[in-house]
Structure formats: C-alpha cells, structure tokens
Amino acid sequence: QEKGPFQPSLFDERNLLEVTSEAFPGERLIVCRNPLLAEQRSRKREELLQATEAELLKITEATTRARNRLKGTEAIALRVGRVIDHYRMGKHFELSITDSSFTCMRKAEQIRQEAALDGLYVV
Question: Quick one: which of 26, 28, 92, 108 has the most CB atoms within 10 Å?
Fold first, then answer.
C-alpha cells in the first residue's frame, strides 16, 4: 500500500496498485493503469490543445489586424467562448481579454499534472 502521487514504478507487472485514502476509510482501493488508454488520452489531449490554440490565435490576430479589427471585451469574449465551448480545453489556457486585445497561454503545469493521470482509474 502506498500514499501520495502515483509513479509508474509503483505498479506491479499487472499494472495494479493498492492504495488507501482518508476519503474512503477502511476501503481497499485498486488503481489500475492501462498503457493503451494513457497513449490515447495523451494523443487526444494534444490534438485538442493544438486545435484550440490555432483557433485562439485567429482571435488574437483579429484583434491586431489593420482593417475590421475585432474590439470590445464582450465581442472578443464571445468569440473566445465559442472556441472554448467547442473544444472543452478552457481549463488548460490562461486567457486575458481587454477592450482591444486578447492573449492566451497554455497552463503547462496543469497539463503536466493531468497527463500524469492518463490511463489511471480506480476500482
């Protein structure tokens, strides 16, 4: 039994790990690791991040173009909201919207933390 973060070296040859949790006193929790599922989730997340980033970059460019510039906090936020709602990746981006500009940046640490859980599930 182990407490704390899951490290690949903690799993046995069947990709199983028994853990305890204060949230579930007296219960046996088995953490399972599926390497194929981990690869699939990692690939899918990166595809969605890239697609989201590409669409957000278009909005950034629209706020800086010379003609027909996108401006106004509400107008910019509506466009950003459509992209975020479509790809469901908003939690992975730091967004900054002003009346005349828009910038975004990936939350690398949060993405790394989520990636560490790829392929894990508890039974």
Answer: 92
